[in-house]
Amino acid sequence: MSETQAWSHTTVLLHEAIDALVTSPDGIYVDGTFGRGGHSRLLLSRLSPRGRLIALDRDPEAVAAATQGATRVEDPRFSILHANFSQLREALADMGITRVDGLLLDLGVSSPQIDNPARGFSFRFDAPLDMRMDPTRGESAADFLARADERLLTEVIRDYGEERFARQIAKALVARREGGHAVRTTGELSQLVAGAVRTREAGQDPATRTFQALRIFVNAELEALDEGLKASLDLLAPQGRLAVIAFHSLEDRRVKEFIARESRDVVDRRAPFAPPKAMRLRSVARIKPGAAEVAANPRARSAILRVAERTDVA
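^ that's the sequence the OP posted. Answer follows.
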C-alpha cells in the first residue's frame, strides 16, 4: 500500500457543504483544500458536463492521491494544482479564470496528516517534529523551536494555542535547548509540555494546545485564511457561494467576522453624503455536524460550516 493510500480520511459535513455550495451545475467551482477528495468527488457528481472543478492542495501527498493510483480522479472536468489556497487568485489567473461560482475551504489538518507518524503532527506517536503541510517548503516545527527566543515562543503558544501556560512552556523549551537537548521529536515535546502545564481540561492531553499553536504558526494558517477570504471577494460571481469549514475558534472567528464585515453597507465618515459602499456578501447559513456524524467521526465535533453568497458585483 502506498503512502498516499495508507491513511484514510472521513470528510466532515460532506453533504451539507456541497448542498450549500453548488447552485449552478454548469458553473466553475474551486475546492481549495482537496485533502483526499471527499468534497471534490461529491461536487463533481452535482455538475453537468459543462461544469468544472479546480482543486488545490499544499500537501504533495494530497495531490498524489488525486492524480495517481486507485484514488486518482479521472474526470475531464477536474484539475488539481499543488498550491496553497492563499495563492488562489494567482493560480486561477494562470488558467485564465477570473470568476467562479463557488469556493470551498475545509480548514485545518486532515486525518492522513495526523495519522501518519512521519508527518509529526500528533503527540500520539514519537516521530520527528515536522508539522509542515508541505514538507518540501519552509521551516519545520523542530527548526523553529531550535531558534526562537522565549518571547516569541510565548507569543506563538499563547496566541495560536490559546494556552494560559505559554510562558512556562516557553521557559522549559529554552532551558532544555540551552542544556544541549533541543526538542526534536513529538514525544519530547509532549513530555516537556506535560511537565510545564499544571492543570488541564478533563479528557484533553496537556500538549494539545501547544501542538495546535506550532502547527498553525509553521504553516501560516491564519494568514493563508485571510488571503483566501480576500480572494473570494474578487473571484466569486454574483450569487456565487463561499463555504468554509473551521475546526477551532481562531479560524471560525476570522470567518465569522469576515462575513459579517462584508455583509453590511459601509458609510465613509469622511464623506457622509456619499452613497455607502454596498455590502459584498450575504450570510446564508451556519451549520454544525449532527449527533450521528459526531458519533461516527469524533473529529467532526468542533466543526462549523459557514456559508455566504456574493451579492451583485459592480
